[in-house]
Fold this sequence. Notes:
The structure holds 2 protein chains of 2 kinds.
Chain A: H1 3-26, H2 30-55, H3 58-83, H4 98-115, H5 117-122, H6 131-147, H7 151-173, H8 178-206
Helix pairs in contact in A: 1-2, 1-6, 1-7, 2-3, 2-7, 3-8, 4-6, 6-7, 7-8
Chain B: H1 2-19, H2 24-48, E1 54-56, E2 61-63, H3 65-94, H4 100-122, H5 126-144, H6 150-182, H7 194-199, H8 206-224, H9 232-239, H10 242-271, H11 273-296, H12 301-322, H13 325-356, H14 367-370, H15 372-385, H16 392-406, H17 410-435, H18 450-468, H19 471-484
Antiparallel strand pairs in B: 1-2
Helix pairs in contact in B: 1-2, 1-4, 2-3, 3-4, 3-10, 3-13, 3-18, 3-19, 4-5, 4-10, 5-6, 5-10, 6-8, 6-9, 8-10, 8-11, 9-10, 9-12, 10-11, 10-12, 10-13, 11-12, 11-17, 12-13, 12-16, 12-17, 13-15, 13-16, 13-18, 13-19, 15-17, 15-18, 16-17, 16-18
Amino acid sequence: MNGATYSSFLEIATGLVILCAFVTLWRRSLLAIVRALAVQGMALGVVALVLGFHRHDDVLVIVGCLVVAAKGFVIPTLVTRVLANEPASRETSPLVNVPASLVGAGALTFLAYGATRPVVTLVSTSAGRLVPLGIATMLIGFFSMVVRRKAASQIVGLLLVDNGIALVAFLATAGVPLLVELGASLDVLLVVVVLRVLAVQLWSKFAVLDLDQLQGLHD
Amino acid sequence: MLAFVLLLVPALTGCVAAAVEWRRWVGWLCTASLGFVLVTGVVLATHVVHRAALSAFSGVLRVDALSAFMVIVIGAIGLLAVCQSVRYLDHEISSGHSSARRATLYAVLVQGFITAMLLAVVAGNVGVMWVAVEATTIITTFLVGYRRTRGALEASWKYIIICSVGIALAFLGTVLVYLAALHVGHGAHVSLQWTSLMSVSHRLDPGVMRLALALLVLGYGTKVGLAPMHSWLPDAHSQAPAPVSALMSGVLLTVAFYVLLRFKAIADGAVGVGFSRMLFVTAGLLSLVVAASLLLSQRDYKRMLAYHSVEHMGLISLGAAAGTPLAIAAVLLHVLGHGLAKAVLFLASGEILLVEGTTEIDQVRALLARRPALGGVFAFGLVALLGLPPFSLFISELNMLRAEVHVGLGWVAALSLVLMAVIFGSVMSHGRHMLFGARSDGESVSHSPSIVTVPLIGALAACGALGVIAWPLDSLLRAAAMVVVK
């Protein structure tokens, strides 16, 4: 892979990751949101694969394949099962409406460019220049966790945060050591499983789907 | 190798508990495994206090004085909580709230939880530390929701969502530290090994390290329960079964703080102490303000204890901000003293809930007259936690304040004294309400079983003895403090 194709592949895949983050804010159907999340997971895996081929780093190629499998297929399937309680569920009343959310996400992207200046100065490669987009994905995840009220939306927000951080890890350091990388991916998988168990219990025992219904504990 | 055996024993005990049906002897076996952890902690401590650190598996596991001290803390408080779990499960099963199958699940999760905490403190690699802290989050989520009431499920949902976000930020911080280490140049061997990061700390890029430390304080600070990321803590600690609350409040918070101390040492090498001092002072003072304001009007005694943990985490954060060897030694003594006193109080409050059937402060009256042993343990626990002599929290708080004044943080010490006075007043008034008063006519004095009172009195006695004579721990505390202070 020559230099120009490498950077354009990398830019397209990274661009797809951030685009999917915006799509999760734009769409209201939870099923569509989860689909965007699956595409984002695959794009993230492609970033790792492109980096791995470019650096002739076999470990990174394997990690990339695992990311495509876990974040592109397994995790989205698990989240879809949470929606099985209410297949046509929509995010009906987010605290902030869609146009305002998109403007907010744009502002967060600018913020990400500002906050990561020391990182971009340190890593002067073509991959390093894309680091702010990972931070932006993470911030959009936070934003969506705060303004969305469905249990499934919060899981999606958490996964956006995680994908953003994984993107930073790939772009800035070409992946942390394998042991940690696997630990991190396995943890996300387990967290999603745990959240699914909790969501099912809350739904089957107490018919709770919206987090507004969870206001029992306070001072 | 001893470090590996240390992890293996509680893990294998967990496997045994999983394989057989729940019986009381399984509970005692689990208790024995914690006894082993405590003894191993002492052996490790005597070994590393004057000598080099032990390491195994090419440095993945590494025990220095600081790790050995934390193993002792986990062993001591774990022993207390696990032996009380037997009584808790007995009661849950006999009252029909739980089955033998669920009791097995509880025992296995608690053993897993303790193994994960031990891994976090004996890991020599900051990545492995992160994995271990994250594992504690996943395991304790099930323990918080163990009772499966609406409140318990709500608390576990909030707990895992907030802590997962926190721990994700901590991961990003760890990635940035790794990034800075990749760019030190001169062919330095790059890894996430804590010792190798320490050896290049003065050459790490200051801009990236500032960002990294801020993220790590936010991330691990969430697990420590520092304000403003503390919102999960009162819910989780009040909804979890009492022995689990004792473990979470007594040790889990400080295990996360231990990881922060390690990262603070690296960042201090790169950017100087000023930056970390600013972060820790902000988080510490904010925690004290939050605890003081929410304790004033607290109506639930388990939540009162939870906010009291926020206060103590704020105090050790201020102590760490001072950062002198004396301050860090005092922080560590406070970690042990707070762990013991808080575990005693949570276990006693579990017993109060069991016999009184309520967690409302207003509904509990005249404990000292009606249940002298239980009331006495609760009263002395509160005295210890409020930092009155002879308990060790008095000595550690005094030394942290002295260290703060010594490094020019006198205003911080003064402000924290004012906030501590407010907290002292409100907790005293809640405590007085629960403890004092006369028995109503015809009500007889009830005695708590000695299986509850004897271990709790023992723990309080240990906490008191540490405040009077420091010799068993003195050299260990000094050695542990020197690990993270240049």
